[in-house]
Amino acid sequence: MVPKVAKSGASFKGAALYYLHDKQANTNERVAFTVTVNLPTNDPDRAVGHMIETAELAQELKREAGLKSGRKLQKPVYAYSLAWHPTEAPTKAEQIEAAKQTLAVLGLSNRQALIVAHTDREHPHVHVIVNRVCPATGRAAVTSQDRLKLSRWAEAYEKVHGKVFCDARVENNAARSQGQWRRGEYISREDYYAWKKAKSDAHWKRYREEKGQENAPRSDQLKALWRTRQRRTETRKAETKAMFKPIWRDVFKRHREELKAFDSGFVGRIRIVMDKADRGRVGASLLEAITAAKQLRADLVRQQELERKQIANHQRYHVRAASQEPAKAWKAERDRLSREWKAQDEDRLNRFKAESDRIWEREPEAEQQRKPRSPKPESPPEQERRQDRKPDDQSRPSAKSSFADHVRKSTSAEDAERAGEHIRQRRERTRSRPRKGGRKFTPR
Questions:
Q1: Over the stretch 279-331, which tens digit does the pLDDT of each residue have?
Q2: pTM of the model
Q3: Strand 77-83 relative to strand 125-131, pairing
Q4: Domain spans, the chain
Q5: Distance CA 206, CA 183 (A)
């Protein structure tokens, strides 16, 4: 059993928004059940409305009870939680009874309270929201030494149920009963945050190291893939070169024979000219063979070079076409590896993010050794006061509006009449209250 007292607050509405709903959501799936104490209704929203009204009427209740009004209570919200060990499975009746016992131990049996059970942790636990203002006298409850009282009650509770989970608590309470001073070993918020941050930093350092270990094998794999591409490309080039080798052999042989025949004499030049001349220019070609032999040889060499260039271009085209297949295969394999590595990186990042979230939710190991082995119960949000100043969420009615709606729809005539009388009295007090002049808007 782990009792934990939350920080006192000033807003019942903020506490209700936190305890009666899921974290940062409008749903209430984690709420197992709610029970009201010293309230005329079992509805949690209406119960919160009654507690708000009682806290606001504290001064009037004191005057009616003949007490000195004194200073207005700034933080009427008192909340604490009771968490069982994960191996325990208390029933609903047992959880309610434990919460009522703690109210009696704290001297809050006559105060308005709302018991809320949550199921969002592996251990059973309930939260108790108490209105420190007495609904009869308006006097505020004194909560001094509440942690010591709850510690003694938790020790007795575990002994009654047959198993003590926290031996350190038994030793400390025994020492306190003998007059020895024992301080609660709760770490400060700064130390707790520093511990969490150090553990988170080590966690993400391990993530970077694990991610860095993948760089070398991946780089080697990409280099091997590139070498495979180059090897296959060279193979394709060699195959294309072998395919064009007989073509080049025949071309060079023919060109050498043509030049040899052209240089052999007049008959050879005539034969070469006749083979290459057009039908309509036979006579002109014969005349050129007789009178311009040097120019004809230069033209023959130029035609041979042009033919060789055309064959070389054709060969390069085949080389590029043959190289595209290894390039496409390399690109497809590289893209496949990139997608696979990206999926692995995302899976690793999500895994480390989930572990980081669990790190920030768990308690320090030292604190777990001092307490029963159960996760840290939730604490109310620190910005309760700000939530009262924000406009109500349209998708979720506020405690006051919900209370008024329930009053209008109530089937109990007595309950509705009593609630209506409270509302009328409150409206009359509001109307009769003197108004102080505020700042006036002056247009520029």
A1: 555 555 555 655 566 777 787 788 889 999 999 999 999 988 888 989 999 99
A2: 0.47
A3: antiparallel
A4: 2-187+365-431, 213-356
A5: 36
